[in-house]
Specification:
The complex is a heterodimer. By secondary structure, chain A is an all-alpha fold. Chain A has one domain (about 35-60, about 85-305): Orthogonal Bundle (MetI-like fold). Helices cover about 65% and strands about 0% of the residues of chain A. Chain A has helices at about 25-35, 40-55, 55-60, 100-135, 135-150, 155-165, 170-195, 200-205, 210-225, 225-250, 260-265, 270, 275-305, and strands at about 75, 75-80. In chain A, a hairpin with a 2-residue loop joins strand 1 and strand 2. In chain A, helix 5 packs across helix 7. Helices cover about 75% and strands about 0% of the residues of chain B. The longest helix of chain B has about 40 residues, at about 230-270. In chain B, helix 2 (about 35-40) packs across helix 3. Chain B has helices at about 1-30, 35-40, 55-65, 70-80, 95-130, 135-150, 150-165, 180-215, 220-225, 230-270, 275-285, 285-315. Chain B is globular, with a radius of gyration of 24 Å. Classes of the chains: A mainly alpha, B mainly alpha. At the A-B interface, helix 5, helix 6, helix 10 and helix 13 of A face helix 1, helix 6, helix 7, helix 10 and helix 11 of B.
């Protein structure tokens, strides 16, 4: 299957020893990915920059992102809605906070929420999907109905409802978004698990007396892993947008936290003429990152699991 | 067909019940007793008021939160079935009255967005498919990819930015309903609908393009061409007609996402619909209102999906037997 279409950055179980072609090294895989997937490479490049900015936010910022400047003049200029200049690279917002520094720290928030929620959501979704197939029967049926119920909600509505219940905080955003990614991942991985359940190695494991959890953890989950990686990457972009949406509405991260969505909250029709930079830059950051991440996700999906091509 | 309709409709009921259970349970795991919260002060972080145990017990009885949770759920669902959504904690008015006022606004916005999206997207998709691998095709494909990546709230903000800057436009303070003054109502809702429908437009254009390309490979298109029909007849009468089926159903399914998307658009453009009601209700911790809005949107989406499934099965008999 996938071996014929070019092998990606993440090593697949290659052909058997002495098989049709020699196993490629990780570097060769990576070079092959760069060559065959230019858009995916661009996505990976932006993703690396995002990670870099998030990790070194403390070094890259020029001001304290939380520092509120009163509406007084330093020298002869006002610090609230200050336009971009050598002191405030991208200007300041309605509370006189430095937009550039908040943008840099916002990368950290976006990446944290995106990674954590898609990882946790997809992990739980994978466990639910695989376990529900393994136990089958009434368990599978009832799990499927619950998933149907959860999927009936438009996902943003469900996330807002969860945030309404939990209250606004960074980790609650992670919880809310994790929950909305469980049903779709569970459903996708269930179909994969259904195929794996019928394979000979699962039968072999069962016949030597392996227990339920040993089969699930040692045999079924590792074979769902490519699909799991793809799910995490694909949901990550969506999670960044969802976090921004929630924070923008004021039900996500608390207002003082420098989240890209939260930074846009101040941008209303009245202030946008006065200080367009408050609205332009965080939005641009979201668009570039999500766009790049989707390109990377699509490329990874093509490489890791060609059967999913064109489904997203 | 009857068997299919019966099956789908029967499956619909447990899903509906599950949805209400999820919402009910979700808003009951809130830390804190709503009665305590109401007495101590309506808004979170507000000043705490003094209250006695009698007042507390009385309010609990009034809100019905003194009964066991299963009974509370049964009462809640029973009341909803009779369109009684309870009384708002914050405004102390019936929730149904508010919904009756706000729901049509949101619905109109979502319908307008869908119409705008289809009007733009279908010709785009068709041109892109007919002129495959030309500039027009590449442009369409770039727009469709961008449409997915641009969050609708940023698009809305940019739109306001340019409207304010170039046309000196300001979002209207007073909302005019469609029945009072259709022209100014449509003027008010045009830009919100455009911002809301943009990502849908991108999606529908993509679907149209791939559906058209698929149909072009069918035998009946080759037959139509070989019997010497004009290309326009082949494209519009034979290909487009068949390609529209997935387009119509998918724009229907996307309607649910639009209903959710209105929340953000309404907040930005200050449209007094259900989305804005939902956001303010969350700040007021007005649970009956939150529950009602979410149930209403979700049930609407579910019903729409059911209708579309049946419609699709009616149009395409192959579906019924799978």
């Amino acid at each position: 299957m996938s071996q014929d279409r070019g092998i990606g950055a993440i090593a697949l179980p290659g052909p058997p020893e002495g098989g049709l072609r020699p196993k490629r090294t990780a570097v060769q895989n990576l070079m092959n990915f760069f060559r065959t997937k230019p858009l995916g490479t661009f996505g990976a490049f932006v993703a690396v920059i995002l990670v870099f900015v998030a990790v070194f936010a403390n070094v890259l910022d020029t001001h304290d992102p939380y520092q509120i400047r009163p509406e007084t003049s330093t020298g002869n200029k006002v610090d609230v809605f200050a336009s971009p200049d050598p002191q405030f690279w991208l200007g300041t917002d309605h509370l006189g906070r430095d937009v550039y520094s908040r943008l840099v720290h916002g990368a950290r928030i976006s990446l944290y929420v995106g990674l954590m929620s898609s990882f946790i959501g997809c992990t739980i979704g994978m466990m639910v999907g695989v376990a529900s197939v393994h136990f089958g029967g009434i368990t599978d049926l009832s799990v499927q109905r619950v998933i149907d119920g959860m999927m009936a909600f438009p996902s943003l509505i469900l996330a807002i409802a969860i945030m309404a219940a939990l209250g606004s905080s960074l980790n609650n955003v992670v919880i809310a978004l994790s929950i909305i990614y469980i049903p779709s991942t569970a459903r996708i991985l269930r179909s994969q698990a259904l195929a794996i359940k019928e394979t000979d190695y699962v039968l072999a494991a069962r016949s030597v007396g392996a227990g339920d959890w040993r089969i699930i953890i040692r045999h079924m989950i590792p074979n769902c892993f490519a699909l799991f990686i793809v799910s995490v990457t694909i949901h990550l972009g969506g999670a960044i947008i969802a976090e921004a949406s929630l924070s923008f509405l004021g039900v996500g991260t608390p207002p003082n936290v420098p989240s890209w969505g939260g930074m846009l909250t101040g941008a209303s029709a009245s202030s946008i003429k006065l200080a367009p930079w408050v609205a332009i830059f965080p939005g641009l950051a979201i668009v570039v990152v999500v766009f790049a991440w989707n390109l990377l996700g699509d490329a990874l999906r093509d490489v890791l699991d060609p059967r999913l091509r064109g489904t997203g | 067909m009857q068997a299919y309709v019966a099956k789908r409709t029967l499956l619909f009921i447990p899903t509906l019940l599950l949805v209400t259970i999820v919402i009910f349970v979700l808003l009951r795991i809130v830390p804190g007793d709503p009665a305590v919260m109401l007495l101590a002060g309506g808004e979170a972080g507000g000043e705490e008021n003094e209250y006695s145990q009698e007042q507390l017990a009385e309010l609990r009885a009034k809100l019905g939160t003194d009964k066991p949770i299963v009974i509370q759920y049964a009462i809640w669902v029973g009341n909803m079935a009779r369109l009684d959504f309870g009384t708002s904690f914050f405004y102390e008015t019936p929730v149904a009255a508010d919904l009756k006022q706000k729901f049509p606004v949101t619905l109109e916005l979502a319908i307008l967005a869908t119409i705008l999206a289809i009007i733009v997207a279908v010709p785009m998709g068709v041109v892109s498919a007919i002129r495959q691998d030309t500039i027009a095709d590449y442009a369409t494909r770039v727009i469709t990819i961008a449409g997915v990546a641009i969050p609708n709230f940023w698009l809305a903000i940019l739109m306001i930015f340019f409207l304010v800057l170039i046309f000196g436009w300001m979002p209207p303070i007073v909302y005019v309903s469609l029945w009072e003054d259709p022209t100014s109502n449509l003027k008010q809702l045009f830009f919100p609908a455009l911002a809301l429908g943009f990502s849908n437009m991108a999606f529908i254009a993509r679907i149209t393009r791939s559906a058209m390309l698929e149909v072009f490979r069918e035998d009946y298109i080759r037959t139509a061409r070989s019997k010497g029909l004009r290309e326009a007849v082949v494209v519009f009468r034979h290909a487009l007609k068949n390609a529209m089926l997935p387009v119509v159903t998918i724009s229907g399914y996307e309607f649910g996402r639009l209903m959710a998307g209105t929340i953000i658009i309404e907040v930005i453009f200050m449209v007094p619909g259900m989305g804005r009601l939902l956001v303010t209700s969350i700040f007021h911790r007005d649970f009956p209102m939150i529950q009602a809005v979410i149930v209403l949107i979700t049930v609407l989406v579910l019903v729409l999906n059911l209708v579309l499934d049946l419609f699709y099965a009616w149009l395409n008999p192959r579906i019924r037997y799978t």
